[in-house]
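Request from the bench team (R.T.):
"We need a structural guess for the complex before ordering more pyridoxal-5'-phosphate. Sequence and SMILES attached. Just send the tokens back."

Command: build protein-pyridoxal-5'-phosphate structure.
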Amino acid sequence: MQGWIDYFEEIKNRLMAEGRWREFVPIDSAPGPQVIIKGKKVILLCSNDYLGLTQSTILKKKAIEAIKKFGTGSGASRMISGSLELHLELEEQVARFKGKEKALVFSTGYMTNLGAVTSLVGKGDAIFSDELNHASLVDAARLSRAKIYVYKHLDMNHLKDLLKNSREQKKLIITDGVFSMDGDIVPLSDIIQLSNDSGALLLVDEAHATGVLGDKGKGVFEHFHIDPSDNVILMGTFSKALGGLGGFVAGKGIIIEHIKNHARSLFYTTALPPSVIASNMRALKLVSDMKKERKYLYELRKLIEESLKNIGLNVPEGITPIIPVIIGDLEPTVQFAMRLFEKGVWTPAIRPPTVPEGTCRLRISISSLHSIDLIKDALSIIEKVKEEE
Ligand SMILES: *Cc1c(COP(=O)(O)O)cnc(C)c1O
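Reply to R.T.: structure attached below.
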């Protein structure tokens, strides 16, 4: 046993020396725009609760009603006795929301990607994956045992070449719709064109797009006014702008049924509890009408982007509520984040392996619950820390 302990201690010491050891930061309040941590109030600039729905009175009420009627758990996997009528209703609602024939709900977004990708392709097939895709897509690709071709971020020429030169018959392209650490958006019509030309399936992960982009919050397709073709599988989550938990895929009926029959991350895990399903259902209805909040989020983003650029920080232009502030090396990024935290702004340093080496950053994310005044307070704190550098 001592050998094991020495081994783990050695790794821990190395990670600590490199500033890569991770600790949780427990919040002692509701995760709203401001939170209490160890008795101290800080402005929260790192949640994915873009529309503030985790705190919605309506959603809380729906969840409580469902607990009273159905209980706290679903008791089994979807394949055994864990499928309630509620799950099916939610799936019909998702399919309508996304304008596809069928939808399938999983317990988390991570499990959705694992289940979908491993069902669609396997050994002898090919996956084409953007280099900055979310870890759940990366892990899914590896687990599938298909050959993985990684293309440069958003580089459609590179993707085109890889597609042309690959020998595999069955091809699947996987991409984030809105990239989780950069907040930029996939060039949708180009990637659809490439998927059609090469006979590939295309899976678009709309975790950060659902509820945020498009007139009714339907995501990247609505944003670009493009109808997803039959070879497209839309993936999304309830865990971000929808304020709940769970993931889904939506697409052509036969494809979704195929995933339903092959996804191990669906069979071998317990179905989402009734409270979560009920609030997810209501959240999907609510977001369609939250156009005002989406417009406000966009305006806040632009305000932050411009203010930070004006004080000399490296902030890429964008339109989503994810605002990366690229610092570069690990040490100064961690220092910047620590000083911000001491002064009352919480936006953590994002480091490898979450982002590539040399692109360490602060990842600011905002919610429609942040008032302009609160954001201005945060901006002046960021400016102060920057001046002290
Ligand atoms: C968060 C995220 C997921 C995982 O969703 P969870 O519901 O949190 O498991 C998948 N894909 C992307 C792009 C994400 O940002």
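Two things stood out. The two ends are 46 Å apart (CA to CA). The mean pLDDT is 96.
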